[in-house]
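Q: Got a minute? One more chain.
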Amino acid sequence: MPRFRPQSLHFRPTTVENIKNITDIQKLSGIQGQNIQQKISQWQTQIVEMTEKKYTKALLEIENLAFHYPYNQRAVLDQLNLKIYQGEMLSLVGENGAGKSTISKLICGFYAPASGEIKWQGRSLLNESIKERAEKIGYIMQNPNQMISQNKIFDEVALGLVNRGWQKEAIKEKVWEILEVCGLYPFRSWPISALSYGQKKRVTIASILVLEPELLILDEPTAGQDFKNYTEMMHFLEKLNQNGKTILMITHDMHLMLEYTERTLVLKKGQVVVDASPYEVLTNKKIVKDTALKETSLFTLAEQLNLAHPVEFVEKFIQQERKERGR
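A: Always. Here it is, folded:
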């Protein structure tokens, strides 16, 4: 669940109830404090809404896509439609079995659809091989150990270029460049077995980035990481996005979805049932209930304090968080 952090409101000490006087801060239902509702409302009116980025160029389009596994005729995906726009950072969410990972495998060519179309910049992908699609689309699995096949970091990142017949010196130059981007250059000669889980995750991302795909699809990018590594990973992905990479994250993490992505696709029974901003999704009780998501604690707090515009509060809080991070 997204973490409520009162310090993120950036109140001046002279204008807000001292945080020491707010009791039971680890439990939303117990948060109390003199004038806290008034001060949060005042803060809310002082925050100018940021202009949301507009993305207009479709990078990937899925039209009326259907899929079922050969051993089971029940449709995993049924008349699925979605668009991913160039330059955006978005999330794909839904309960287990909704078809999230299946979509990524269809996009990358690991599976073939029963019907429908997948387009890249307006042209069909369906006749392209896995290797050809990998030039455009990189898929990073949840568990890095399932992707790693080499013993040394350099060799793992270089593998895709080796398989494409690059010359040795060109490979060295390109791999070092990518390792620098991923913060792995100091470890370039290390065995992968000496790395932390989070560092291994970066190695798998580096091995994909070296091929220069325009779209990155990450399945649970922060799974199994503590808050420090979680934050470092998300800042790294934000930097990639700011440098032009389009990023789709498949996740169950509502905190990640709310704070780090600008658009959310909600999947249910093989169809996209909601396409909206994360705060619109997580402040809509019907959507949350119907799709087995978790209401954001920010919205819970806003309702508990009887704020006049709880949805607006969540929106402004998240926008302020992004502003503070420099997005």
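A: The chain has twelve helices and ten strands.
Q: Perfect, thanks.
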